[in-house]
Input
Amino acid sequence: MAKIVIDPITRIEGHLRIQAEVNDGRVTDAWSSSTMFRGIEKILQGRDPRDAWYFTQRFCGVCTTVHSIASIRAVENALDITVPYNAEMIRNLIIGIQVVQDHVIHFYHLHALDWVDITSGLKADPVKSAALAASLSDWPLNSPTYFKGVQEKLSTFVNKGRLGPFANAYWGHPAYKLPPEANLMATAHYLEALDWQREVIKIHAILGSKNPHPQTFVVGGMAIPIDPASQNALNAEKLAEIGELLKKARRFVEQVYIPDLLAVASYYKEWAGIGAGIGNYMTYGEYPREAGGKKLWLPPGIILNRDLSRVCPVDHRKVAEYVDNSWYEGDGKPLHPWEGSTEAHYTGPAPPYDMIDTNAKYSWVKSPRYEEKAMEVGPLAKILVAYASGHAPTRGAVDMVLKQLGVGPEALFSTLGRTAARGIETLLVARELPVWLGNLTASIGGGDYTAHNNERWDPADWPAEASGYGFHDAPRGALGHWIRIKEGKILNYQAVVPSTWNASPRDARGERGAYEAALVGTPIADPNKPLEILRTIHSFDPCLACAVHVTDPEGNELINVKVS
Ligand code: NFE
Ligand code: MG
Output
């Protein structure tokens, strides 16, 4: 038996450690740990609930909008505030472009190098790369000269020994399967995606004054003024600029990301049978279609045991967090977030250490469960629930992807399915964003300039005590913030975020979290180079900063793989 430790797992946000046991070339068990803590939930106690979004937004620098959205929704829910239609559409635009940008970044910059051997691209014939790319899409940059230029740039890097972002990967690993031409094409698009993502997120700057961390959120709506006659407000010119950026976003997704995803996936179809894990999927739904946000474009729901014939409803009261394997104080009972606490109590080994004893507490991540069941959240959960609910655009996009890959819906329950679902979600949202912009433009055109409901702005109008929850389906999945308010101040605040669900350690009954379960059965060609573990873990797009609400001040340590 080989014992593998990967610490930290890189190309993610935050600090994740995986310990795994490998027998006869397969992972037989795995443990997921986060090894750093900050505790913003505690900082919020005693503050004004209207300020909470500003603090929670700093959980993370990757999903930079999501904790503000979930926070203002939680306060709006507690105080029974109805958000105006224009504000819902502005929020949809901010949320939607975040999803599109984040997923493209994930595919190219955080996940592609698990499948694409950049160094093999040096051996490619640029003419053949161009022919391959032209067979997949009519993206204008796909010419032999262009690919030759990229190849030369890459070889200059390599010859100087300066691989930059491409350093420290398992280049030449036998599990890489793409031909050199496909590797070169994907490398070129990796570089293009860097420029593209910087452009499209300007929508956040227009609607939110900046990115990361847009600044126009406010309890009750959005703080951006709407006035077609003012240069200092959301006007026709700015709406048109957003429209152009949305076209740019959609073109890249349709002509580069999705063709690349399908091309790469076609070489790795065996990964449609690896990495399924728990088999329970949960999404909170997203994209309000009306003022007040009750009707959603993507449906909420739960799928149990991979049964696509039944979608169960979601009830926030059934969420509870265990701390039996997490470094917090607690008496072993799972707590609903209104009752939850974040009292750190570290009992792990003193650094530096080789192994964490997983028979004792082993992570800063808590173990959220829904009706005591572990759940996977994220793009795959969203897409499966929408598919099983008969959501027409989702059915169309999923069927297109399955047909092109020549696989059935059961292939979705896998590492490959997770990565494909992220692309499908991106495609759906990139196509729907112009609809929300059109709705907003029509509403403003009809004379409605309201973006904020300030009826309950004054704490004197609040009840003495109130509690609420705010759901948002973030890029990495189901995100919930829960708040209790007493006499105008925050009494308790708890966030249960997507990577908390997915990265969770075992619960009191020993049930594994989503990463842990997904790794069991994964083939490992070489325990010293566990590329296959990275594939499955990265397919979730981990964000440990969110999961334990931490930042990692020394996050530039190189990956350390130990095999004993
Ligand atoms: Ni820091 Fe996040 C998203 C949230 S965590 S990235 O999306 O919430 O999983
Ligand atoms: Mg929390």
Observations:
- The two ends are 9 Å apart (CA to CA).
- The longest helix spans residues 236-266.
